[in-house]
Amino acid sequence: MRVPSSRLVRLGSVARGYIAESGDTELQIPGVLQMSIELSSPIDKVLAAPVGSVGSPIQDSFVTSATVALTGAQIAATTVLATFDRGVWSLDISFSGGFAGTPNAAKAAQITIGDPDAATAILIDMPFIAGQFAWQGLYRFVFQRDGWQMSIQNSATIAGDSLRANASIHARKSL
User: Fold this and answer.
1) pTM for the complete prediction?
2) Can you tell me the distance from the alpha carbon of 168 to that of 67, in angstroms, rounded to the nearest whole number?
3) Confidence bin at 48 (pLDDT 50/70/90)
4) How confident is the model at residue 119 (pLDDT cuts 50, 70, 90)?
5) What is the spatial distance between Cα 149 and Cα 129, in angstroms, rounded to a whole number?
6) Domains (ranges, CATH) in the chain?
7) pLDDT tens-digit map of 126-146
8) Please, what's the largest Cα pairwise distance for the chain?
């Protein structure tokens, strides 16, 4: 069965050097579907955050981590973990932390993903409520443009607050 799909050309354009050919806008689905595996670029080393930059985004698989540790009154801040090259990425993200101090559910430490135009979305949210937090999950993204950033964002703290947040990313580029 052939299914028309203009997305295939857009997906192909993510890979540098792609040349559109006849039939590239059609998805062919065989009568029998087979299991498939994810085959991504191997990890070569652990890199210190921030990995990549807006002018030079990371183009290959990597592992990184960063920790935010605050005591007392501190301003809100953003800690960039990585800036990604366009392509197909699988991100295993672990986020853990703890907060002690004045509870305020409107404040938080968060893992965010930001597009090249600086719009952000919250992936993981740890509100400033006394206690500890741990989360782990897999996200899959197809970035159409260079410059997507993953960050830890933390709200301002006040006197008597104590915040610790740690994020680690195992990022695998497939295409």
Assistant:
1) 0.80
2) 9
3) very high
4) very high
5) 27
6) 1-36 (no CATH), 39-173 (2.60.120)
7) 999 999 999 999 999 999 999
8) 65
> How many whole angstroms separate alpha carbon 113 and alpha carbon 148?
7
CA distances from 42 to 63, 80, 140 (A): 11, 23, 17
Locus of tokens 């996200």: 139
By C-alpha distance, which of 127, 129, 132 is closest to 107? Answer: 127
Contacts with 69 (C-beta within 8 Å, 6 or more apart), sequence order: 163, 164
Q: DSSP string of 37-97?
A: ----PPP--B-PSSBS-SSS-B-S-EEEEEEEEEESSB--EEEEEEEEPSEEEEEEEEEEE
* H or E segment to which residue 6 belongs: none
Cα–Cα distance between 156 and 109 in angstroms, integer?
Answer: 10
pLDDT of residue 167: 97
Q: Which amino acid is at 96?
A: S
